[in-house]
Amino acid sequence: MAEAGADFILDKKTGKVWGYGFFGPGLSPITLFKNFRRPGYTVAAGLVWNLNDPSDWSGSALGASLPWGVLHLLPSATFRSSKMWGAMTQLAKREKNVSRSDLSIQIGVSTSGPVALKVATRTNSFSAGVGWASDAVELGDISSLTGEIQALFRDAGKAEELVR
Fold first, then answer.
1. How many CB atoms lie within 10 A of CB 25?
2. Taking 90 as the threshold, does the pLDDT of residue 21 lie above it?
3. Contact yes or no for 119/107 (Cβ under 8 A)
């Protein structure tokens, strides 16, 4: 599998928001089956520990995604082929019938120290990967970004009134 996306980190101490692009290869057992080799997407939010500087999140990292709905099947599947096949079947069934309420737990570890724990929506994928994140880009402070988002909605409302 391959993954790409963006991470945004809000530093609560300074109120600044940082952005990072990321990509990387990984392994997902469900992609052994041809029917499950298609693009997907997810949105995740969580906490980061041990982040002393925004550049700590840049560079290489390891990650894993564990689907909440089948997490209870994984311990009993260890080293038992029939149980493993049952867990894979449940993963496949859930992957084909994904909904917005499906959750996954994601763990990320940057090689420079920080660790992230996230909850992702709309996903049933079990995967492990190695990735790389770009250098940190300061996007501004949260108060200015909030004002800009409000202005966008205000402008969109004015445009809608003009169309009517």
1. 10
2. yes
3. no
CA dist., res. 126 & res. 32, Å (int): 12
Query: Any bridge partners for residue 2, and if so which?
Result: 25
> What's the pTM?
0.70
Identify the sign of the CA torsion 81, 87, 92, 93. Answer: positive
Q: Which helix (H) or strand (E) holds 37?
A: none
pLDDT at 8 over 60: yes
Cα dihedral: 103, 92, 110, 16 (round 10): -40
Q: Looking at the 3D structure of the chain, how many domains does it have? A: 1
Residue 142 CB neighbours (<10 A): 15
Quote the domain boundaries for residue 29: 2-163
DSSP for residue 38: S
- How far is the C-alpha of 59 from the C-alpha of 110, rounded, in Å? 7
